[in-house]
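Practice problem: predict the structure.
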Amino acid sequence: MADFHGVFPYLVSPVDPAGHVRTEVLGRLCDDLIKAGVHGLTPLGSTGEFAYLNNAQRMQVVATTIEAAQGRVPVVAGVASTSTADAVAQAKAYQKRGAAGILAIMEAYFPLSDAQVEAYFRAIADAVDIPVVIYTNPNFQRSDLTLDVIARLAEHPRIGYIKDASTNTGRLLSIMNRCGDSLKVFSASAHIPVAVMLIGGHGWMAGPACIIPRQSVELYNLCRRNRWDEAMALQRKLWRINEAFARFNLAACIKAGLAIQGYDVGDPVPPQAPLTAEQRKVVEAALRDLG
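Answer:
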């Protein structure tokens, strides 16, 4: 199985008002992120607005990312649906297109039992020959993954990673204790990445890494070298970005940050709204302080 580790920015999906994906903008962003040292790219994570895009748009975002990466870093494509059959079809299509891994996300309308949640993720992993990262985010999912379900999924030969956005770092330690080396843990921006690395994390998949890639890679490298005092000092500086990210709409915050940096990524897909002028100033100030 491939070894995913380090900083995987959750990419934005730049879509113009007519619904066309701005492939040149996305391609340039991917190239710049790779040059900044990121370890992988994740299209169609939460920041990628997967819930607001149609299948054609999602495929174009994934294909553009894979083409821009040119094999330099792994592309782990987000798969999300309320329907198991649709999720399986997405996963197969992204593997065929050249994705190195799948980020499996569950969307839910009606509540689901543990067995149904487990079956959804298992079906995705059964359908592909590439590693699967299971993504749990109780803020957005009607049905979260219990520790028992996570432990059973970790036994699947292709499910080797979990990205947890619960904000509960104790839960991460429970997952690590329960699953050991069979499931590697990635942090979200909802956690403090340094704290997750300290307890045994393998990196983070998060939207803020789109706008602070160089600093994110520096933070990861400090952690890997056990230079915890320096890592914590840098983490404190970077935390203002995470605070802004937590206060505002996910995509709006990162798209505003990228626009400030000269990427014409456009506004979030309606009915989401862009940041207000006052909210944008918060992001501008945080980026300015980071140089």
